[in-house]
Amino acid sequence: MWKRSKFNPLERWLLKINHDLATVFADTIIVDSHQMKEYVDENKLHKTSYLSYGIDIPERITWNGNTLERLKSYTPIDITPGKYYLLVARLEPENNIHTIISGFSQAKVNIPLVVLGDFTSTTYQKEIKTLAQNCTNPGVIFLGSVYDEKLLNMLRQNCTAYIHGHSVGGTNPSLLEAAISRNIIIAHDNKFNREVCDSSAVYFKNENELAMKLKSIYRNPEGYSELKTRVYHRVKNNYSWDHISAGYLSLFKKIKQENSGRFTHMEMNYEQKKA
Fold first, then answer.
1. Partners of 116 in beta bridges
2. 132-168, pLDDT tens digit by residue?
3. DSSP state, residue 66
4. Ordered structural domains, the chain, with CATH
5. Is residue 77 a contact partner of residue 112, using CB atoms and an 8 Å limit?
6. Contacts of 231 (CB under 8 A, 6+ apart)
7. What is the pTM of this model?
8. CA 103/CA 132 separation, integer angstroms
């Protein structure tokens, strides 16, 4: 999206031109969030369809501390099932990493924050690492990117709660993955995240609100356990790949039917050229 802050002015301008040209010449414009429709010119809304990103139900992974051995070089802190907050994201400003680390520092809870993901800027990395040093023990554990799906699912399925700071970009896959893992979701309060989770998550707008939510969940996780089931069923019903795939199939059939005359004409021209 051309409005994203990580792009410089020239990159935003080029992306905006590319976006405008694509919406003019495309037969159909697909958005993965209803909220993304506001970025489509009102004259093109008639050919805009909503088809979200999808999610599969993962297998349940039994906690196995041995699978964490290769991560020991990152931290001397033990990660205990049910006793850590989890964040999985690209570590950049748009994902509110600064707000999350600050809120976690204020909360002063006696469990660590486990962070999975890579930094996209060395300057931002230094800023965040410095901020994390202010957190009291057990502090913040930066594990870098993890591509082992079973390990990822194990960490998602056993955290106290999942923190989601993404603020732009429509439906985010990492939010769906956390939700389908039956997590308590603590999400940045914006229209994209609310469209996915609705009332099945708790939200924060700033570090102070986040600190309050972290402390509350730490003290009484059972009081929020109902949210795990609610958000699971919400994404299972609305974002399953079976549901999304059926939507794509229906759309492709509709496009073919609407353009059958054009396709037939093109095929006739092709056959004439072959002859």
1. 88
2. 998 877 889 999 999 999 999 999 999 999 999 999 8
3. G
4. 1-51 (no CATH), 65-238 (3.40.50.2000)
5. yes
6. 179, 182, 183, 185, 197, 200, 201
7. 0.87
8. 11
